[in-house]
Design goal:
With about 70 residues, the chain is mostly helical. The protein has one domain. The radius of gyration is 20 Å and the shape is elongated.
């Protein structure tokens, strides 16, 4: 890794750590929840696709649910 790129990585890690230190407990838990949301939604979509027959929903209903 080039020296310039390494300095950028170290700087980015330091900024990230500084931002995390400034977050309150509530903000930290909200950030964690926001990180888990796409994973949970992906699992829900997967289950819906797995458990429903192909013609169970119209395309409009699918677009609303997914």
């Amino acid at each position: 890794m080039g020296q310039c790129l390494m300095k950028r990585c170290v700087f980015a890690q330091a900024v990230h750590a500084a931002v995390l230190c400034q977050l309150s407990a509530k903000e930290t838990s909200l950030a964690a929840l926001a990180g888990e949301l796409p994973i949970s939604l992906g699992k829900l979509v997967w289950r819906l696709r797995k458990r429903t027959p192909p013609n169970d929903f119209t395309s409009a209903q699918k677009s609303v649910l997914l």
